[in-house]
Amino acid sequence: MRICVVGCGAIGSLFAAHLAALADVDVWVLDVSEAQVRAINDGGLECSGVSAAIHGIQARCDGAQVPPCQFGIVATKSLHTDAALAATAGVFADAAVCSVQNGVGNEEIIARYVPRVIRGTTIVAGHVPAPGVVHLDAPGDTWIGPFEPQPARMDEVGELAGLLNRGGLPTTALEDARGAQWTKLIFNSATSPVAALTGLTMGQLGEAAGTRELIAGLAAEGCAVARALGITLDDDPLALIEEAATHAYGHRPSMLQDVLARRPTEIGVLNGGIVARGREAGVPVSLNQAVTALVNGLERSWA
To answer: pTM here?
Structure first.
């Protein structure tokens, strides 16, 4: 079994490292960072605090150097989905490709380039302290299911879930993964922009009444949009946020990490995605609209 992970940041590295622990899986990764690719090829990929460096992963910057694969896992920032899939279309000519990215809208882009698509979401969290090293900040589950407009077969979804489970990443195969995806979308959209705008960690966000109230309001709007779209959430986003505040107190959400590094954020597919779908469904989303404007303004200030 050959699998290519596209995007070897924190999430892509965690998926690649766990899959590479399986003797019957040939793992390739594609990333634009020459330093990351060189470090993995030279010294393996270390999952800090979980395992020693795992050797045998083939890392490349050029998609033309990756052989055809049966599965793909896309873990790039949403801003890079189109370019990444254009570069790897030949790799996935007869593959089922799964997005484990943040937000909504990535599967639609992937479907332009590959024959079969898997909708995915994960609450695993980590960061990359150095090239070739990924640190697991918070373990968590992953949910995957066919992307309805251009679905992978359910047996393919089950096979990929089985591989991830064997590798140590708890994964559930679902016939409809929209509920899981929207649960995480609301979780991220309620916390990430508030962290990005304040500099507070997950745990610190819950310590002030003002930020708690804002988070609850953002989540309520997201839940209202999901209901209007006929999507049943698989968990309570606010309960998950409270749990994360305790168990991942010091975790900096990826949007905060982006802001600290002055990188473009994923606000457009998180709160911006809720705003767009809220407008389509006729649901008021003023808080999500406000934080989207604030984060976009912050990004513009860097220029």
So the answer is: 0.91
